[in-house]
Amino acid sequence: xxxxxxxxxxxxxxxxxxxxxxxxxxxxxxxxxxxxxxxxxxxxxxxxxxxxxxxxxxxxxxxxxxxxxxxxxxxxxxxxxxxxxxxxxxxxxxxxxxxxxxxxxxxxxxxxxxxxxxxxxxxxxxxxxxxxxxxxxxxxxxxxxxxxxxxxxxxxxxxxxxxxxxxxxxxxxxxxxxxxxxxxxxxxxxxxxxxxxxxxxxxxxxxxxxxxxxxxxxxxxxxxxxxxxxxxxxxxxxxxxxxxxxxxxxxxxxxxxxxxxxxxxxxxxxxxxxxxxxxxxxxxxxxxxxxxxxxxxxxxxxxxxxxxxxxxxxxxxxxxxxxxxxxxxxxxxxxxxxxxxxxxxxxxxxxx
Length: 352
Description:
Metallo-beta-lactamase, Chain A
């Protein structure tokens, strides 16, 4: 959902964007790469950090893009023109989602280097690349059906999306180096501290450099849209929204003038304001959910027009269903709503 308070943020580079195959200098030793995506959210930001490992000079890549011919071609242009003749020394993935991990196997093989990421997301990616987890297939369709999505055409299309993740992440590297909350990573003589975040992914890793006042926020803090926070079929009673909102408070300890490098949108300052906006946004959505449940027993599918005012395609509907369930679960698991299973096999929520 678009940020109505976006004017409170500042974009130091204005409307300047790197074109496909380009890398834009942001700060000494930090370059911004932008790759296309085949969704309504049509791009992902990736980052190049000047590095030195075991006496070798080169670069670290943060996030990879999806596995596609276009992404590989654009990466090859970056390698030829924007690495100053130096190699890639490591690849860091903030989390397991396809736009962040899709080309990790190709990149690490191409440069004979190691993938670094959290253990939780690495192992889930290994599972998902051979069997879609929470993003399509019969289990996802049944799960959404139990939360009120009964349109047979939509359910059939969700069943047909069993290859959703493997198409964009066909292979995950067989080995990796683990990142955890608080891990300090030396990248080119600068210390980058890992900040684990929960709710959007099982163990999302953001990277903060105090010396440069830079935060690679991944998907945890985005300037223009709110981060998707979903319940999926493999963890059907999860409470990711509470985890996400709790995780946001970790960023309030960073300097107010930190330059945030998000995975989608443009680099910005105003981190504390954005955290406040996101907390306010979800507070408003939770109030709308409570009001709907007070009016009548409500399932997640019935909340879609309440929480999402625009028309949704199927891809967006699956994310919207996950997010609607997340808002219901936050209220249910804190005791404000009660969950009831109807004779039709659908969960509805009422005031506790």
